[in-house]
Design a protein that fits this description.
The strands form 3 sheets. The protein has a 3-stranded antiparallel sheet with strand order 2-4-3. It has a 3-stranded antiparallel sheet with strand order 5-7-6. Helices cover 46% and strands 11% of the residues. The radius of gyration is 24 Å and the shape is globular. Helix 3 packs across helix 6. It is mainly alpha-helical and 296 residues long.
Length: 296
């Protein structure tokens, strides 16, 4: 017999079931602060590995080399890989970097404004790898992608990945390098700002939001509020108060690399030297072809 006051109360099993149902309902409810995604969709988008078949972020490999003419970061990586493969191997320095002769060759071939190349030559008598940030980044990204390996003091293109070098495999190589840059390479490595790992972990969300908010030209100032998860934006704003907020880190860490992969069109303001500030962005035609999302 039930005790006083217990008549009609639900069984503990019913209560647990009700809690699960209510929780599931909240997880399935779109949230404006998550760009219209449900919490469940956000978790899948952010946490699923991009190469996995079940990833909501879909990356096409059906691109041709002619589609990638604006993707300078990709083209520089491909040029580096082709040069190493052609040489057979490239001697490394004792510090594990590319040797000076090869670095000089890379400077001549790399896609970079000539005024930047001239400044590098002017400031450096001897060209070590780290004197040319773009060359160093290319080498590290290719290693992160598993395309290049240093063996017995020499850099070599990994034999089982050489099939990616012909023109007809450009789309597959592009996809491989894109995943390596944003999921394995440390995006904070060279910009000098705080690490802010949340930004890199949530890049898929930022890409999803860019697709929606940057179909037409949009100012970089204030863009973080639209394409970053609230905790990531808060962390960046707090750390970068002295720099005027999160826009500068956003440019260096996310927008510039996306431009390097040809996925953003940009408008820039020159500082009078070699440096250019991105003021406005919009997603490129390549962005629309390469990226899609199974969350709509």
């Amino acid at each position: 017999m039930d005790g006083p006051g217990e008549e009609g109360l639900p069984h503990i099993g019913d209560l647990r079931r009700l809690v699960r149902e209510l929780t599931a309902a909240r997880l399935a409810e779109p949230k404006p602060e998550l760009g219209g995604l449900t919490p469940e969709q956000l978790v899948q988008l952010v946490l699923t590995a991009w190469h996995a078949a079940e990833s909501p972020l879909r990356l096409s490999h059906e691109l041709e080399l002619r589609d990638l003419e604006s993707a300078t970061l990709f083209l520089n990586c491909r040029m580096f890989l082709t040069s190493v493969a052609t040489a057979g191997d490239v001697r490394a320095t004792q510090a594990g970097n590319l040797n000076r002769a090869f670095v000089s060759q890379m400077l001549e071939q790399i896609r970079m404004p000539e005024k930047e190349k001239d400044l590098i030559r002017k400031l450096n008598r001897a060209l070590n790898e780290e004197c040319i940030g773009d060359v160093h980044t290319v080498r590290v990204v290719c290693e992160c992608a598993g395309l290049v390996r240093r063996v017995k003091g020499r850099f070599r293109v990994v034999k089982k990945r050489q099939y990616l070098l012909p023109d007809e495999k450009a789309g597959e190589l592009f996809r491989t390098l894109f995943i390596a840059y944003f999921q394995r390479f440390n995006m904070a490595y060279r910009d000098g700002f705080i690490s802010c790992p949340g930004l890199q972990r949530s890049v898929a969300y930022s890409l999803y939001r860019l697709r929606d908010v940057a179909r037409e030209w949009i100012a970089v100032e204030g863009l973080g509020e639209l394409i970053l998860l609230p905790p990531v934006l808060a962390e960046m704003e707090e750390a970068l108060k002295a720099w005027g907020g999160a826009s500068m880190m956003l440019c260096y860490r996310l927008l510039q690399p996306l431009r390097g992969f040809g996925l953003l069109d940009v408008r820039v303001k020159s500082s009078g030297g070699v440096h250019e500030d991105i003021t406005h962005v919009r997603v490129s035609r390549l962005f629309e072809r390469f990226l899609s999302f199974a969350v709509d």
